[in-house]
Specification:
By secondary structure, the chain is an alpha+beta fold. About 60% of the residues lie in helices and about 15% in strands. The chain contains two helices and three strands. It has helices at about 1-10, 15-60; strands at about 65-70, 75-80, 90-95. Strands 2-1-3 form a three-stranded mixed β-sheet, with no helix packed on it. The longest helix is centred in the middle third of the chain and has 46 residues, at about 15-60. It is rod-shaped and about 85 Å long.
């Protein structure tokens, strides 16, 4: 009853208004998901570029190497020029 009175008083179809409101909400949700997707893609791209930078620096022998003492578990960071080998997987173990 109140719905009919509201339609008569304003001359607006409330079902049509509800449909437009639903479309607006769906459009806002879609835009929000698009922004989240774009930001995550940018973050992943930056992360990949940083990984590539580290890998390329290590391949050129630039950086530091960790020397791990197998008995005590102590870790010593030395310049890569002091250790033989510059591969990423090089681990120097002392006894």
């Amino acid at each position: 009853m109140a719905k009919k009175k509201a339609e008569q008083a304003t001359g607006i179809d409330l079902n049509d208004a509800q449909k437009r409101m639903d479309q607006y909400v769906k459009a806002c949700d879609k835009a929000k998901k698009g922004k989240i997707t774009a930001l995550s893609m940018i973050g992943v791209t930056i992360l990949c570029l940083l990984i590539l930078l580290v890998v390329s620096l290590k391949m050129r022998g630039i950086g530091f190497t960790a020397v791990v003492d197998g008995n005590s578990g102590n870790v010593t960071v030395v310049q890569s020029g002091e250790v033989q080998g510059t591969k990423l997987a090089d681990i120097v173990t002392t006894k």
